[in-house]
Write a structure and sequence with these properties.
Layout lengths: L33 E6 L6 H20 L16 E5 L2 H20 L23 E3 L5 H12 L11 E4 L14 E5 L5 H8 L10 E6 L5 H8 L1 H6 L15 H19 L20 H14 L5 H29 L3 E2 L8 E2 L14 H4 L24
Parallel strand pairs: 1-6, 2-4, 2-5, 3-4, 5-6, 7-8
């Protein structure tokens, strides 16, 4: 992965498995952790389970919150905001409709209560009908504003959040210590994603997190996780999937060679570092060849036995071609008198790097479509071809 001929682990494994020098394992008596609760219902759809779980969590939270002071010192504050985690935008969309309509309406009704023995576990509650969303279809500015709102105490009536709906984009980068309650709809595809996502709650050392996992008992995978729920969570770090490393594969080169080459040139040459310096590839084209050779040498060291030279030559040829295309784009921009930046299109200028789903991508020539850059390289799904047919043809 790091192209190292030899590697030494520091510090070496010692006699205490709870202390690795970099991290220590704390018991529940020393620091607050996370409690996982699995819910499944035979003969009920997952949407019904989701509806009733939200009603119980939001109503019970309101009843407990009213017993304390309406300020940040209230111990129930971390659990007044429910973070809903979904495996896809399709599931999120359907669940959002349920939350906006049925959950909002039913929470305003008189709460359920037990007569014998008498108790009042739930309370009526008014929540915002416009749910907060943290997904890829929300703009960067809106995501930043949503994070600020999630950090606000529930006593802040102007900015507080009752329910936030999110996808796997919160698996990293959401470090809000206040959050304490998450509802996961369906078992995520990988154990790594599951651990990363649920780790967004219960980050306060003094306040434990509660993760409610709603499982579809009619799906074999969800049923399997439900049946061995306790044993799986007792050692779920053991189930984390190994990440394959294929730096020289055709699809890896298609997806990552161009942005890696541009990033290497930009970070190595001070003149190329500013955002608007992409046009320098034309007058200083010859100074960039050495970076194509660096990537080619890197590919050689990662190749399978007997394929070192072939992969080296292939990566070198593609890298030099990308540099030629970059130089041509810079020359064209200069001739038109427009600025060429790496990823910002301002003042009528052009940009070199494009997102994979850029709507203007297919209108560009092949030499420009090659400079596609993903926003994340943590998880790359295989491409899927869809063929749309007209049923009335």
């Amino acid at each position: 992965l790091f192209d190292r001929k030899s590697m030494t682990i520091f510090p070496p494994p010692g006699p205490d498995q709870r202390d690795s020098f970099f991290a220590q394992t704390k018991t529940e008596q020393e620091i607050a952790g996370r409690q996982y609760l699995g819910i499944a219902a035979q003969g009920r759809s997952l949407k019904v389970v989701y509806l009733r779980a939200l009603l119980a969590l939001l109503g019970a939270g309101e009843a407990l919150y009213k017993k304390g002071a309406p300020d940040p010192t209230n111990p129930v504050d971390p659990y007044m905001t429910v973070v809903g985690y979904f495996n896809s935008l399709r599931e999120l969309g359907g669940s959002r409709r349920i939350a906006e309509d049925q959950v909002t309406m039913k929470l305003k009704s008189p709460p359920r209560k037990r007569l014998e023995p008498a108790d009042h576990l739930f309370a009526s509650r008014s929540i915002q009908q416009d749910m907060l969303e943290l997904t890829s279809r929300v703009g960067t500015d809106e995501v930043a504003a949503a994070k600020e709102r999630l950090s606000c105490w529930f006593s802040d009536k102007a900015n507080r959040v009752d329910l936030a709906l999110a996808t796997n984009m919160i698996s990293v980068g959401l470090d809000i210590t206040r959050l304490g309650l998450m509802v996961v709809l369906g078992q995520p595809k990988t154990s790594a994603e599951y651990i990363q996502a649920t780790s967004r709650v219960g980050r306060d050392r003094e306040k434990p997190g509660l993760v409610v996992v709603l499982l579809n008992i009619h799906k074999p995978r969800d049923r399997s996780h439900y049946e061995r729920f306790e044993s799986f969570h007792a050692s779920f770090y053991r189930s984390v999937e190994a990440t394959s490393v294929t730096p020289g594969s055709p699809r890896a080169l298609d997806r990552a060679l161009a942005p890696a080459l541009v990033g290497l040139c930009r970070q190595s040459e001070d003149a190329f570092n500013p955002s608007g310096a992409a046009h320098l590839a034309d007058p200083k084209r010859t100074t960039l060849d050495k970076y194509a050779h660096i990537l080619a040498d890197r590919a050689r060291s990662a190749a399978l036995p007997g394929q070192e030279q072939a992969l080296h030559d292939h990566v070198l040829a593609r890298s030099l071609q990308l540099l030629d295309w970059w130089s041509s784009a810079a020359k064209e921009a200069v001739s038109k008198g427009i600025p060429l930046s790496y990823d910002n299109k301002k003042n009528g200028g052009d940009r070199l790097l494009r997102e994979a789903l850029d709507p203007d991508l297919m209108d560009l020539p092949l030499s420009r479509r090659a400079f596609r850059a993903g926003r994340s390289m943590r998880d790359v799904e295989a491409s899927v071809d869809l063929k749309v047919s007209d049923a009335f043809d």
